């Protein structure tokens, strides 16, 4: 899948991004991460940090964190 979202269950910022992707009709895969910040090695490998949400757009070569930035990217680029 070209769009991947790293998210934590119950994270309100992750839910906002997921809702925006759903509302825009964008297909994506969710990678659920561990609740322990120190165990989020997969997120660190792809983004250089352990916070979520992180969006990966493989087709455009984009990796980004911070929900506000991701929401703007979804609205301007993917929707």
Structural topology:
Layout: E1 3-7, H1 12-23, E2 29-32, H2 41-47, E3 54-57, E4 62-65, H3 67-78
Parallel strand pairs: 1-2
Antiparallel strand pairs: 1-3, 3-4
Helix pairs in contact: 1-3
Descriptive notes:
InterPro entries: GLR_AS, Glutathione_S-Trfase_N, Thioredoxin-like_sf. Pfam families: GST_N_2 (PF13409). This is Glutaredoxin family protein. It comes from Halorubrum rutilum. The protein has 79 residues and is α+β, with helices and mostly antiparallel strands. Helices cover 39% and strands 22% of the residues. The chain has 3 helices and 4 strands. Strands 2-1-3-4 form a 4-stranded mixed sheet, sandwiched between helices. Helix 1 (12-23) links the parallel strand 1 (3-7) and strand 2. The mean pLDDT is 95.
Main features:
4 strands; Glutaredoxin family protein; 22% strand; single chain; GLR_AS; 79 residues; four-stranded mixed beta sheet; Thioredoxin-like_sf; Glutathione_S-Trfase_N
Helical fraction equals: 25-40%
Strand percentage lies at 15-25%
Major sheet: arrangement of strands: 2-1-3-4
What order do the SSEs take from the amino end to the carboxyl end, as H and E?
EHEHEEH
Unreliable stretches: none
The chain-level structural class is: alpha+beta
> Biggest sheet: strands, sense, closure?
4 strands, mixed
* Distance between the amino and carboxyl termini: 17 Å
Total count of strands? 4
Q: Over all CA atoms, what is the radius of gyration?
A: 11 Å
Shape: globular
Helix count?
Answer: 3
Mean pLDDT: 95
